[in-house]
Design brief:
Elements: E1 7-12, H1 14-30, E2 35-39, H2 55-61, H3 66-72, H4 75-95, E3 99-106, H5 108-118, E4 127-131, H6 139-142, E5 148-151, H7 161-178, E6 191-196, H8 201-213, E7 217-222, H9 226-236, E8 242-245, H10 250-256, H11 269-273, E9 277-279, E10 286-289, E11 304-308, E12 311-315, H12 318-332, E13 339-344, H13 361-374, E14 381-384, H14 391-404
Helix pairs in contact: 1-7, 2-4, 4-5, 8-14, 10-12, 12-13
C-alpha cells in the first residue's frame, strides 16, 4: 500500500475538546489528507465530525467496559485503561497498513494517552503531540520513540486565536512529515550500532571511520539513558547486524541512581537477538547527575567532577565496580553468537586515563577482575594495555568485531 492510500490518525478526548479536534481534522482534510479518528474521552463524544472509533472500543481493546469506567469515576484508572486500549487499537490499525502518521492533543491525561498510543508505532512514522506539557520532562512517557512535542502555550480547551494557529501548525507538520518519501535502506549494506559519550568520542569516531571504510553503515547512540534504550529497542526490531558497545556507562547510572540510566534491560538485546557484539566497559568510572545541588546527599562525600555546569560526574568506587563488572560479564555471557569483552587497561574513559581526574587503578582493577571472573568460557576477555581513546584500541575493537561477522 502506498503512502497516498493511508490516513492520518487523530486521537484524543473528544468529550471535552471536540471543537479543537474538529479544527485539527478540518486542517488535515484541507491539506488533502484523509483522517481516522479515535475518541479516548471517557464521558462523551462529539457530533462535530465523524468518529471512527469511540471510547467504548478503546476501553474494550484494553479488556474493560466503558460503563464501569464512568461509574467508578477513577481518573487515574481511566487514563491508564484508555492508554492501554489506544496502544492496542493503534497497533492494530498500523499493522493493517491504514495509517501513515499519528497526531494527538491534550493536557495531562490526554497527553499521557496519546503518548501511550504512539508507543505502538515504529521508528520513522511521524508522531506529533500538541500538549500543555511540552516543556516538562516527558522522557519516561516518550521512551525511545521519535515523538515531536509542540507546546500548546495555552490550554487545549476551547478555540482561541493562539491555539488556532498552533493547531494549524501541528496539522501542517504532521501532513508534511507523513508524505516524505524516504530512501529505503540498502539491504546489502550491513549496519552496526555503536554507543558513545563525550569521554569516548575519539574511540567511537575512529571505529566509525574504520567500519565505514570496510563497507558498513554505523549508527551511533549517545549513552544518556534514552540513547541506550533506543539502541536496545532498535536491536530488538532487527535493525542491526552487530553491536560495538563501547560506552556502557548507563549500567553505572542504573546501579547508583544516576540520570543516564537506561534501565535493567540495557546490554541484553544483542544476546536475545543473536547478533555478534563486542563490549567495552567504557565510562563505567562515572555516574551522571545534574547540577551539583542535585547529587543525592548519600554521595556528598564522593569524588565529584563538574563535566559541565549541568553535568556532575561521580567516580565509581571499588565496590560498585565489582558489581558492574559482574553484571556486564553476565549479560554478555548470555549471547549464543560470537561476543567478546575488551578491556582498555590504561583507562576506561578520557578522564580515567593516567593524569585524568578519575584515574584510579584500584577501582578499575576491581572492575576488570569481576569481568574476568564472571565471563563465560565462550566469551573471550581481551586485555589491551592502552587507554580507551588510543587509535590502536579502536583498531583492535574493529578487527575483533569484523572477525565475528559472516563474510560478505
Amino acid at each position: 500500500m502506498s503512502i497516498s492510500d493511508k490516513s492520518i490518525l487523530i486521537l484524543g478526548c473528544f468529550d471535552t475538546k471536540g471543537d479543537v479536534f474538529s479544527y485539527l481534522r478540518d486542517c488535515i482534510v484541507a491539506l488533502g489528507e484523509t483522517a481516522i479518528t479515535i475518541n479516548t474521552g471517557v464521558f462523551g463524544t462529539t457530533s462535530a465530525f465523524p468518529v471512527d472509533f469511540e471510547a467504548g472500543a478503546v476501553a474494550a481493546a484494553a479488556g474493560h467496559d466503558l460503563t464501569d469506567l464512568r461509574r467508578d469515576r477513577d481518573r487515574g484508572k481511566a487514563i491508564d485503561v484508555m492508554g492501554q486500549g489506544a496502544f492496542r487499537l493503534v497497533s492494530q490499525l498500523y499493522g493493517e497498513g491504514k495509517i501513515k502518521a499519528v497526531v494527538g492533543m491534550g493536557g495531562g491525561g490526554g497527553t499521557y494517552i496519546a503518548l501511550s498510543a504512539m508507543q505502538s508505532i515504529p521508528l520513522g512514522v511521524p508522531k506529533v503531540c500538541l500538549t500543555t506539557l511540552a516543556t516538562k520532562d516527558l522522557s519516561r512517557q516518550i521512551g525511545d520513540k521519535d515523538i515531536m512535542l509542540i507546546p500548546s502555550v495555552v490550554d487545549v480547551a476551547g478555540m482561541n486565536h493562539i491555539l488556532k494557529q498552533l493547531v494549524a501548525h501541528a496539522a501542517s507538520a504532521v501532513c508534511a512529515m507523513a508524505n516524505v518519501e524516504t530512501t529505503d535502506h540498502d539491504d546489502k549494506t550491513r549496519t552496526i550500532a555503536i554507543s558513545m559519550f563525550g569521554n569516548t568520542t575519539p574511540c567511537v569516531d575512529k571505529c566509525t571511520e574504520l567500519l565505514t571504510a570496510a563497507g558498513y553503515e554505523v549508527l551511533a547512540f549517545h549513552a544518556t539513558g534514552a540513547g541506550g534504550k533506543t539502541m536496545e529497542s532498535l536491536i530488538r526490531e532487527g535493525c542491526f547486524d552487530a553491536v560495538l558497545d563501547i560506552t556502557t556507562t548507563e549500567l553505572a547510572d542504573d546501579l547508583c541512581g544516576g540520570i543516564c540510566s537506561a534501565g535493567p534491560e540495557r546490554l541484553t538485546a544483542a544476546a536475545e537477538m543473536g547478533i555478534p557484539q563486542v563490549v567495552v566497559p567504557g565510562c563505567l568510572d562515572m555516574v551522571n547527575f545534574g547540577h551539583p545541588d542535585t547529587v543525592p546527599h548519600a554521595f556528598a562525600g564522593r569524588h565529584l567532577y563538574s563535566w559541565a555546569p549541568d553535568v556532575t560526574l561521580m567516580r565509581t568506587d571499588e565496590y560498585e565496580n565489582a558489581i558492574l563488572g559482574e553484571r556486564l560479564a553476565g549479560k554478555v555471557s548470555r549471547s549464543p553468537m560470537p561476543a567478546a569483552i575488551v578491556l582498555p587497561l590504561k583507562g576506561i574513559s578520557q578522564i580515567a586515563s593516567e593524569g585524568g581526574i578519575f584515574h584510579n587503578p584500584d577501582a578499575d582493577e576491581a572492575l576488570f577482575a569481576a569481568i574476568r571472573a564472571n565471563a563465560s568460557p565462550n566469551v573471550p576477555v581481551i586485555e589491551a594495555d592502552m587507554p580507551i581513546n588510543d587509535p590502536a584500541f579502536a583498531h583492535l575493537l574493529v578487527e575483533t568485531l569484523l572477525g565475528f561477522m559472516p563474510k560478505k
